[in-house]
Amino acid sequence: MRVITLAGSPRFPSRSSALLEYARDKLSARDVEVCHWHLQNFAPEDLLYARFDSPALLALIEQLQDADGLIVATPIYKASFSGALKTLLDLLPERALQNKVVLPLATGGTVAHLLAVDYALKPVLNALKAQEILHGVYADDSQIADYQYTPAFTPSLQLRLDNALETFWQALHRPQAVVPSLTTQGAVHV
Ligand SMILES: Cc1cc2nc3c(=O)[nH]c(=O)nc-3n(C[C@H](O)[C@H](O)[C@H](O)COP(=O)(O)O)c2cc1C
């Protein structure tokens, strides 16, 4: 099993990235190979000027093709997910998340924007043809005790993360009806 983790905060260290770090440690301790990506892997001008030939972008796309799942983390900015993350998601191919289970994670300064993942991020993940998008975890900043060094959360947030990661792990291992890639689909029709 291979999972991509993608940190969608323009900042590092960051609260939403701390959730991902926790997820990485938990999954690596099981049978999952985790490949980590963050926005700092990309040249800012490649994202801003939509350079589809960006070497980092092409490497991410290639890794995504072989991945079984994606965990994406974002801060809430202006009642939505981060604009910097959107500049990256915009450059992914239309079916980049086909056959993949996706777990969204988000952190915000207030619980008032809890639904931003549902009304803003999930439609984009759907547009990328994610096979299954799990409920995800939203944390407000007061639930994150440390994100600069070793991630530390309130017990209730840690429990929600553990439950979400268990659900994610089970979804990864569920037998899935794999949709052939477009090139394979062409071969099927011949
Ligand atoms: C530019 C900016 C806009 C923000 N807008 C919101 C917002 O609309 N709603 C909210 O709940 N928090 C908002 N926040 C707070 C962040 O979402 C919150 O601190 C988050 O945990 C930061 O995550 P990060 O450390 O991973 O970047 C905003 C923060 C910044 C810097």
Automatic annotation (TrEMBL):
<keyword id="KW-0288">FMN</keyword>
<feature type="domain" description="NADPH-dependent FMN reductase-like">
    <location>
        <begin position="1"/>
        <end position="141"/>
    </location>
</feature>
<dbReference type="Pfam" id="PF03358">
    <property type="entry name" value="FMN_red"/>
</dbReference>
<dbReference type="GO" id="GO:0052873">
    <property type="term" value="F:FMN reductase (NADPH) activity"/>
</dbReference>
<dbReference type="InterPro" id="IPR051814">
    <property type="entry name" value="NAD(P)H-dep_FMN_reductase"/>
</dbReference>
<dbReference type="InterPro" id="IPR020048">
    <property type="entry name" value="NADPH-dep_FMN_reduc_SsuE"/>
</dbReference>
<dbReference type="InterPro" id="IPR005025">
    <property type="entry name" value="FMN_Rdtase-like_dom"/>
</dbReference>
<protein>
    <submittedName>
        <fullName>NADPH-dependent FMN reductase</fullName>
        <ecNumber>1.5.1.38</ecNumber>
    </submittedName>
</protein>
<dbReference type="InterPro" id="IPR029039">
    <property type="entry name" value="Flavoprotein-like_sf"/>
</dbReference>
<keyword id="KW-0560">Oxidoreductase</keyword>
<keyword id="KW-0285">Flavoprotein</keyword>
<comment type="similarity">
    <text>Belongs to the SsuE family.</text>
</comment>
